[in-house]
Write a structure and sequence with these properties.
By secondary structure, the protein is an alpha+beta fold. It contains six helices and ten strands.
Length: about 260
């Protein structure tokens, strides 16, 4: 479900696939490569660290505060509906917490940013299965993400690549945004991807702000789906507030 650099950025399995046109698809793209860069000087001292299983409760509280409420499509369908959180969304967000590629930004012992990642391999869409979801509103999000996973055909744009790093959720404390924390998390994610032999990084953006931020980081859009064009049984499902007009898939080749 993508991600958050300005208000929100949710990306993806269903978070790897929490991949969210007329369906618009770009058939061929020349995607720029952006080399890793040193972490930018922090406004306050912080470090980028691997997430540990013991971080679970603090991560959940962070997501409840800075991600789940900010996500445009969550708000669009009233996902929380007066609740403090959505337990099924939390479970999906942290289902691979100990995979060794999730990152956190930490300052004074407190998590101030997260980048939850996963690995996709060529042919992964063939393994997508319909999930039994008790929360009917969250099920709508999963269905959208599965649709985008199938239609975006990520690996068709990179015939020489068989493995990708997918950024599922990128979120920063709202009081600290604009200080380079998200960029540093992405740079470290790129380093991990390179070490694991991934040829590209990819992210599904349900937020206009996230898409704009990734573009500034050198990512390029390979797929776009306007919310007004995504319908189930002839009805538009998501009507997020302006300027969130489409779900997009952004990718970047790893140098």
């Amino acid at each position: 479900m993508a991600v958050q650099m300005q208000p929100s950025f949710i990306l993806t399995e269903k978070f790897e696939k929490l991949k969210f046109t007329d369906f618009v698809s770009v058939d061929s793209v020349s995607t720029p490569s952006t080399p890793s860069t040193p972490c930018s000087p922090p406004a306050e001292p912080y470090s980028i660290e691997l997430v540990k299983d013991s971080d679970r409760e603090e991560l959940l509280q962070f997501l409840r505060t800075f991600f789940i409420r900010d996500e445009p499509i969550n708000d669009s369908i009233g996902l929380l509906d007066g609740r403090a959180t959505c337990s099924e969304l939390e479970d999906y967000s942290l289902k691979e917490l100990d995979n060794g590629i999730n990152l956190k930004a930490v300052s004074n012992g407190k998590i101030i940013g997260v980048c939850l990642n996963g690995i996709l391999e060529r042919g992964y869409v063939d393994e997508i299965e319909e999930v039994n979801c008790n929360d009917k509103k969250f099920a709508k999000i999963l269905k959208l993400l599965d649709h985008v996973a199938v239609e975006s055909k990520i690996f068709s744009h990179f015939p020489d690549v068989d493995k990708a790093m997918t950024v599922k959720i990128l979120s920063v404390d709202s009081s600290l945004r604009g200080r380079g924390i998200a960029k540093d998390l992405m740079n470290r994610t790129r380093d991990l991807a390179r070490e694991l032999g991934c040829g590209i990084m990819t992210a599904d953006c349900t937020s206009h702000f996230t898409a704009r931020a990734l573009k500034k980081l050198g990512f390029e859009c390979i797929y776009s789906l306007k919310y007004e064009d995504y319908k189930v049984n002839g009805e538009v499902v998501f009507t997020p507030a302006t300027p969130h007009a489409a779900v997009t898939v952004y990718t970047q080749r790893i140098a």
